Amino acid sequence: MNNRISIIYDRVRWEEKEIFKALEHKNIQFSKFDAKTLVLHSDDSVQSIQDVYGNSILQRCISHYRGMLIAHYLESKNCSVVNNSSTSRTCGNKFLSTLAFEKAGIATPLTLFSFSDKSAVNSVASLGYPSVLKPIVGSWGRGVVKLNDMDSAKALIEMRYNDDGLLSKIFYIQQHVNRPPRDIRTVVVGNEVLGAEYRYSSNDDWRTNLSLGAKIENCPMTKELEDVVIKASESVGGGILGVDLMESDDGLLVHEINNNVEFKGISKFTNDNIAHKIVDYIDTVSKR
């Protein structure tokens, strides 16, 4: 076995570069694997896989299904993967993560699940306008639309229903929450919340994704915020996660959890080196 830790990714972003630098700084030997180049053999032995990938793997694939299935494969060969396949599966699917929040008693926006265009239109009518339609798999705000009236709701639902995508006929329709023009992104590693930021929507978009031009500023960490974030993390199995929340008239609502969290923004507002914290966590896992 050459290295104890491997990093599997499908794009090298700022975050992956910081993790590589942290591993080098701590003199931890590691291997890097681009998931797009991997060919995994069903009959490979446990020992042969561990000889290549080591004791512990940090899975950083942007593609939900690619990362989750690679985690499943490596776990079948007795490798330890962070985040594990169960956590990846739940976090990468809004349908499943909402159920996990509800089961754990975590406040989350009211969400209706529908499986045809007609029932989806009825769901929107029962929630009222505006409502929010989201794909159950996806990130960076892609495919998230506000339904302001019946005409736009029917048109957008019909368009999605007639798409050939595997998940296009599953409708995840969420209550539009009366909130400030911002949400809260937090980063949690293990049982430690490392920081939080406010993400403000840009002037021409109501969504708060950085990829869509949102602005960020420091969000003070409170005991209430920390407790909610840790509970949300535990509800999906824990690991290295981004927990997103909204401030509502009834308090904090958890509305999404990210299995492959980007932390460049929050790094500006914390004294902790998040990449170093991630490496310490993975290093601990690899020694178990």
Question: Could you explain the architecture of this structure?
Answer:
- 34% of the residues lie in helices and 25% in strands.
- A hairpin with a 2-residue loop joins strand 12 (240-248) and strand 13 (251-258).
- It folds into 3 domains: 5-90 and 279-286, Rossmann fold; 111-175, Dna Ligase, domain 1, CATH 3.30.1490; 178-270, ATP-grasp fold, B domain (D-amino Acid Aminotransferase, Chain A, domain 1, 2-Layer Sandwich).
- It is globular.
- The two termini are 16 Å apart.
- The strands form 3 sheets. It has a 5-stranded antiparallel β-sheet with strand order 11-10-9-12-13.
- By secondary structure, it is an alpha+beta fold.
- The longest helix is centred in the N-terminal third of the chain and has 13 residues, at 64-76.
Task: Please summarize what this structure is.
With 288 residues, the protein is an alpha+beta fold. The protein contains nine helices and 13 strands.
What brief labels describe this structure?
13 strands; 3 domains; 4-stranded parallel β-sheet; 5-stranded antiparallel β-sheet; 34% helix; 288 residues; Dna Ligase, domain 1; Rossmann fold; alpha+beta; single chain; D-amino Acid Aminotransferase, Chain A, domain 1
Layout of secondary structure:
Layout: E1 5-9, H1 14-25, E2 30-34, H2 46-53, E3 56-60, H3 64-76, E4 80-82, H4 85-91, H5 94-103, E5 111-114, H6 117-127, E6 131-134, E7 145-147, H7 150-161, E8 171-175, E9 182-189, E10 192-200, E11 215-218, H8 223-235, E12 240-248, E13 251-258, H9 274-286
Parallel strand pairs: 1-2, 1-3, 3-4
Antiparallel strand pairs: 5-8, 6-7, 6-8, 9-10, 9-12, 10-11, 12-13
